[in-house]
Design goal:
- The structure is a homodimer of 387-residue chains.
- Chain A is built from ten helices and 13 strands.
- Chain A is of the alpha/beta class and 387 residues long.
- In chain A, helix 2 runs antiparallel to helix 8, helix 3 packs parallel to helix 8 and helix 9 packs across helix 10.
- The radius of gyration of chain A is 22 Å and the shape is globular.
Chain lengths: 387, 387
């Protein structure tokens, strides 16, 4: 058999072809992707990922060492989110799977199909509606862009499966009034899921950064589940999210018998999945520790403050004072500005319904990048007639 | 900011810690994982994966080059599966997501909730039942371990959303009589999904290997969708599956508006996902081409034939003549043999309901590995009182 005798010349040609395609990408490394909630992973993440690429955590009894790493990573997340000893967690591919998984648990526990979500909920809930036959009841936002908690109670019915609060919204980085939601859900015995895909790795460190802080996690008794993405502010590599459930027994609700692999049951949505991202995420948490994350959050908030001042200096206005490191710049025609910036090789995100563009100060975004960007933003806004 | 100044000593300690955990894993590289449907990826897969790790195909307009690679990979798969020009495809994380996605499309198109599946269907359909509120109607198997097509017609009702056929079953590698299912579905206008997660990269090459071949793909007019995993017999890295739909418009049925990313809609289940596995899969298909895959299939079938002869020489019997490269060895107490082999560092899979163990001759399994394994298998069977 010759299948393992590598033709090095052929390999080089193919990898060169791939790199040619890559020239058409923007890269996180360049710093020019300035509107995404993903970013460049920490260097140790890439190395750890590679070492564990050829492992399958969908069949954990073959990969007992990698499974131990996974357990330790989940434990780190439980600790970060103040989960009680009764809690359990599952690795997911990201925020969308985290939300689907939480709604699956809530549906199984309640035998209900209605979910109450804020108007600011991530678009993955639109998928949940048709995929899972769930009915979405949308709650309007207050002037402060929070889910209007006074409206929530009115929407609760005998068919309610869950209420969802957001900790770090996609558009603005807002955090819903989760303390109030927790009280409601505790009283009414309703499953409360917190989508902290973006905020989960920031909010626990706000106090350290002397920034206004908000309770959002299992320290609130009414919170049933929290999803959090390590490939967003956790500084790790795609795909790595975690869903933590207040009671580990709830995992049984979404487990099936798995006779053909080396364990009796499999929990969660996906089957085969690499241990690479999990090892990467664990390596990053080990490298940074709580102090490292606190430093990153300080850095991101400092860059945010700097960016806000520069935007105001340009004469542009914001949708709101950023509660986290997400900045929404109000524009008359955001699409036009986005298009001009894209031609210049910069990518910000367009938030049409807020007539704005989104800038996210991720860990790898520096003041130097912002300075470079501001020149481009000013030019683009002048060209588009915004300034 | 010091977050980018790497402490090399600390990095080394953490990577060493990870490698210590890894010692508790079995590895695909060792050849001792001999019952899994995943295996060691082709060397070029690892390299390509690494180059594209920090890309996000969930936001394809930022990564236009990587998106082009994805399109080319999907086109390769469409070609492999004889898909018509009207077809379209989506990358998924593997067979489970492929099946969920297909059932989502079928549910949306039919507004029905019942799916007719063979008793041999993968356990992911059990997830689909509770996740998606689908009702499973199980069809018993014939003596040849095929879905009994004569029973299928009887189960069809006004509530049928889809019929599922298997091309390369999890337990035995069997291929259902998909020609008959296709005729039924064409007549009755029912969505027919083929789960070719395992068989999709083998069955197209059986003729070349002078092995009995079976129609299973879009060359049959009644086939609506096929899911196929490149991380199984496609010799690529986890996670990489593809779902091909006969009509690309059906993708709209599972698309939602995605205002916060740089494209108007997002199709499929997951959101953020790395371009790494896609680039890896494309590199492997470019490296091997159709001829390379044909050679791999010949190799796997040859190893299978060799293994079968050695098993029979030991005095053990098989559940059936392997239709592909999946061998089920009939034993009185498979659990006991699996446990003894595990202690010796070898991993085969237990198929309790067939009172057997499963061996899969993946591309990286060689005659030399089989020779080594046979010694262990004989000893284990003697110790367990099977021989």
């Amino acid at each position: 058999m010759t299948i393992h005798q590598l033709d090095m010349q052929k390999e080089k040609e193919i990898l060169d072809e791939l790199l040619d395609f890559q020239k058409k990408d923007l890269s996180f490394k360049s710093g020019h992707i300035i509107g995404s909630m993903c970013g460049l992973p920490h260097p140790i993440a890439q190395k750890a990922y590679q070492l564990f690429l050829a492992t399958n955590l969908g069949d954990p009894n073959i990969f007992k060492g990698t499974r131990e790493i996974e357990k330790r990573f989940i434990f780190f997340i439980q600790n970060l989110l103040n989960a009680p000893p009764s809690a359990g967690g599952l690795i997911v591919s990201g925020g969308t799977e985290g939300n689907i998984t939480a709604m699956w648990v809530a549906k199984q526990l309640s035998h209900n199909q209605e979910i109450i979500i804020p108007a600011s909920a991530h678009f993955s809930f639109q998928k949940i509606a048709t995929l899972m036959d769930m009915k979405l009841k949308l709650i309007p936002l207050t002037k402060e862009f929070h889910m209007d908690a006074s409206q929530v109670k009115k929407k609760i019915s005998a068919g309610t499966a869950a209420i969802v609060g957001i900790a770090g919204s996609t558009d603005l980085g807002t955090i819903d009034q989760i303390e109030e939601l927790s009280d409601i859900c505790k009283d009414e015995h309703i499953f409360l899921h917190i989508d902290a895909a973006f905020g989960g790795f920031i909010i626990p460190f706000l106090k350290d950064a002397k920034h206004p802080s908000y309770p959002f996690d299992f320290s609130l008794e009414g919170v049933s589940s929290v999803s959090i993405d390590a490939h967003k502010m956790g500084y790790s590599a795609i795909p790595l999210g975690t869903i933590i459930l207040r009671e580990k027994e709830w995992i049984d609700e979404i487990s099936v018998r798995s006779p053909c692999i080396n364990s009796d049951t499999q929990a969660g949505i996906l089957g085969t999945r690499s241990g690479g991202p999990v090892a990467a995420g664990y390596a990053v948490t080990r490298y940074l520790g709580m102090e490292g994350y606190a430093d990153i959050v300080k850095h991101c908030l400092k860059t945010t403050k700097y960016t806000v001042s520069k935007i105001k200096e340009l004469g542009l206005s914001l949708v709101m004072d950023p509660p986290l490191n997400v900045i929404a710049v109000r524009l008359k025609n955001p699409g036009k500005v986005v298009a001009i910036l894209e031609k210049e090789g910069w990518k910000v995100n367009k938030i049409d319904h807020l007539s704005s563009i989104r800038i996210v100060c991720m860990p790898s975004i520096t003041k130097e990048i912002i300075d470079e960007f501001m020149v481009k933003l000013q030019q683009a806004c002048q060209q588009a007639g915004e300034l």
